[in-house]
Structures are given as structure tokens and as C-alpha cells.
Amino acid sequence: MYDAFLNFRKIAEVKIKLSDLIPFKTGKYNLLTLHRPSNTDNLDVLQQIISSFERINIPIIWPVHPRVLKKLHSVKIPSNI
Prior knowledge:
Number of helices: 5
Oligomer: single chain
Distance between the termini: 22 Å
Shape: globular
Structural class: mainly alpha
Strand content: under 5%
Number of strands: 2
Order of helices and strands: HHEHHEH
Largest sheet: 2 strands, parallel
């Protein structure tokens, strides 16, 4: 993943402004990657994982995988995500 980050970082800096994508002022934030089937296929497990982030006082950016996006209608997402 880090190699991909280094490879596409310059392209992303030109094409996308993070401040246009997030609903809060830029500053400190966490990046959530949650897409492994073992963590997302079972709705109870997915809900437990997502709920655990509610205790974090820093905004969380979550670029949601399309497969996971289909399941989110059944999950309560904390306001900091």
C-alpha cells in the first residue's frame, strides 16, 4: 500500500483537493481503511468495528469500498466518520 501511495501521491495532489472532499476544516484527522471481508461481511462485526471509532475525538475519513458501501444502510455510522 505504501508503494501505491508514493506512486500516486503526485497525481492525487494535482487532481484532488482534500479540502473539497471533507466536510470539516483540514487539520488533524484519521484515515480509516476497512474493507476486508472478514471485517465487513458480517453486519454485527462491521457495526462493532465502526462503533468503536465513536470514542475518537478527531474526524475520520473513510474512503468506502464499493462492496462495503452496499452494506452501510444497515449500519449506524458515528458522526465523526
